[in-house]
Amino acid sequence: MNKGALLVCLFGLLQGCSHGVKQTYQSDNFDSRVRFLVIHYTTGNWNDSLEALTKGQVSAHYLIPEKHDSSFVEGDLAVYRLVEEQQRAWHAGVSHWQGRENINDQSIGIELVNRARCVYEPLNWEEQALSASQLDAQSFCLYPSFDQQQISLLIELATDILTRYPNIEPTAIVGHSDIQLGNKQDPGPNFPWYTLYQHGIGAWYDDDTVFKFWQQFKDEGLPDYQVVQCALQRYGYGVEVTGEFDQQTFNTVKAFQLHFLPWQVTGEVNPKTLAVLWALMDKYREGVIDRHCMSVAQ
């Protein structure tokens, strides 16, 4: 390659073009790969979390420490970027939300340092219809409170992300437990979803609508399980419509309660849980529950 051609090539690389490709026109037909924002907790201190997310087999785009962590010696709390947003971080695993798989490919993941811990002891009963309380007995989790300064940093970060990715809808801001049913509990019942909602981040329900549906279910009784499963599916969860209260339904209801009824995480289908689900559907799905899910039971 002669000197003149080399200079042309170098100039083209600096302009983001090479091999004679010219970006002369800009199409209006594109959007961002980022559709979801997923929030996690790490289950370890700063050192363990940073090691796992940078040297292990998982990663996230951002990591936010907490106060009173002796392993954090960086100074004031701050947001730490571990993976560029344009790149794919490995934080979601085998996941599903709103009809989409492989949420890693379509999301930004944020990890909060928090030393929550769960112990699992699966029941050995096979092919038996278990109650919600029996299923709930399979695990015992401890959930430390989140640091308020940590949450303030998260709100600032999430607000900035939503400014840059306006196609992330309120219902597309989820926890790890929402997208990986049964395997994950994070960010847990102590995570302040309602506080985030008050700052314009994520979905929440309107109280009056909840009370309306709660009274309706008290007066008329609960719908069939297949209608409940359909409603959960239409909202975003990866649950199959089987018409039975099975392990996957328990996992889905529990994940829903972790997010929207953290004071009542039982996995049980009851009037309060369904009132919240119906209120969310009414607010964010324009009543599609009437047009789609009710027909499932017929």
From TrEMBL:
Keyword Iron: no
A Gene Ontology cellular-component term: outer membrane
Annotated coiled-coil segments of the chain: none
InterPro entries with a match to the protein in the record: Amidase/PGRP_sf (IPR036505), Amidase_domain (IPR002502), NAMLAA_amidase_2 (IPR051206), Peptidoglycan-bd-like (IPR002477), PGBD-like_sf (IPR036365), PGBDSf (IPR036366)
SUPFAM superfamilies: N-acetylmuramoyl-L-alanine amidase-like (SSF55846), PGBD-like (SSF47090)
All copies of domain N-acetylmuramoyl-L-alanine amidase, residue ranges: 25-188
Keyword Cell membrane: no
Keyword set, alphabetical order: Cell wall biogenesis/degradation, Hydrolase
PROSITE patterns membership: PROKAR_LIPOPROTEIN
Known EC number: 3.5.1.28
Gene Ontology molecular function: N-acetylmuramoyl-L-alanine amidase activity
Catalysis: reaction(s): Hydrolyzes the link between N-acetylmuramoyl residues and L-amino acid residues in certain cell-wall glycopeptides
GO biological process: cell wall organization; peptidoglycan catabolic process; peptidoglycan turnover
Family membership: Belongs to the N-acetylmuramoyl-L-alanine amidase 2 family.
Record's protein name: N-acetylmuramoyl-L-alanine amidase
UniProt organism field: Pseudoalteromonas ulvae
